[in-house]
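Handoff note, outgoing to incoming analyst
You'll be picking up this chain. Sequence as last confirmed:
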Amino acid sequence: MKLVIGLRTKKGQEPALLSWLSDVRYRIIGREADKGLLFRLFIYLILLDTAYIYLKPVLHMVTTMVKNADDLLDPAVNWFPRIVYLGNLQDAWEWLKYPKALSISLMLALSVAIFQTLSCAVTGYAFARLRVPFKNLMFFFLLLTFIVPMQVTILPNIIYARELGLLNTIYPIIVPAFFGLGLKGALFVIIYRQFFSTQPKELEEAARIDGASVYKIFYKVMMPLAKPAILVVFLFSFIWTWNDFYLPSMYLADIETAPLSMGISRIASALKQQAEVYGPSVTDESIRMATTFLMIIPPMILYTFTQRWFIEGVERTGLVE
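Most recent structure output, in case you need it:
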């Protein structure tokens, strides 16, 4: 008691030791529920667990594809192989015809992403800002295209593509994107509509006073402001087209060199047939992992350089709501 009393700084103030203990308690627990050390540790623990859930399949894929037959048969080898074996990756490279398949996938995904980014921006701006007759009815039909499954309309599209001589080409996939259709086109229009609806109308009014037309207002005023939405739509369109297997399998079924999404399916079918004839091989799983790794590398590189702007764009376009 004498020690505590002796630690008083001024007359009438609480002891310095009690003040220090109170300060430590506030640092650990926090004056508010979300400011203390315990809360931050809890958040970090959740983030680490979530990261582990998402990274574990990727780490398993990478470690499996670099194992040789001995490491695959040895139950003691789990995560780290004794020898880094790149033969499975080389086999997957050759089976996929990777340079040619990569160029087809890049051309297809980039073309669709660019066309959808521009055409859906025009459509979304029209729904958000322009006074068009029956605009609400047309937006209702747009929502129907978003709700109706693609499998319902694929047969008429294949018939039209065959009559126009466009089967076994990428044009049946690219041309709809030029008109704002294609894979998830309605969703991109909704994203643009949501973004343009939040912009102040004073910008357009000031541009009209200066004599700007509707087209000039769109390209000179609204589009520079829509960079977050543009990036979100471009990345979504690119990734979904890159991973899409259904449309290429419908239109490009008879060509020898196909996009990577079809190449993975063909390799899986070939390995299955080979296993039925000769029995399962030890390296089948490693080859599957290697083909998957070659498939996801380009999107991972793209997202690595654009993740900052992508997260900002998702927040500003209202997708988190």
